[in-house]
Give the backbone structure.
Amino acid sequence: MANQIVEIDVQKLFESGAHFGHRTSRWNPKMAKYIHSKKKGIHIIDLEKTADCLKSALDYIYDAISKGQSILLVGTKPQSRGIVQEVAQKTGMPYISKRWLGGTLTNWNTISSQIRKLKELESKIVSGAYNDKLNKLEIQRIQEKVDDLNDIYSGIKEMNGLPSIIFVVDAVNDHISINEANKLNIPIVAIVDTNADPTKVTYPIPANDDSLKSISLILSYLEATILSAKSKVKKTN
């Protein structure tokens, strides 16, 4: 099933700086086929290949979401946190934007039990169940615990089971999430800069993963794709 909504604009990719890779000394040779040239010691990514890879990834995501599947957005670098959270919330998808907790996927049973505990504590605070049993200081401590748990789990609090796909903004920075997804055979879509290993990713998108403009543009395409696919699901139902 093709995604007819999003058209990849190579000029916009260029204007966002998506073609700027890392210094040539930091490259991963497995990225060679995606590199166009070198300029002043910097690898330049071939944006035609970026556009092709991005289209393939978005077509795959569109197909999955239109079948009612879910995608977990992962971006824990400071420059990507805000946009990852924003896109996830707009599309109703789970996300991790602060810190990847080891075992989030591979030890999901333990993680989900912690989330259930968080929801139970929240429910009791809201209902006033603690008011007659505990003093204000004790209730405050429970609230602090809830806040701490929310800081860790808020983005995946409503994730019912493992995601169908994970989307990773930086394949190097969030390599643990990629390793866990690979262990569980969960398809991975990820932005891969010139220092990354694209062979660990199901749908690599060669692009600058440090520039906020580059990240924001790619995530805007992702957002439009998810929303389009979800609207198709609603029309079908």
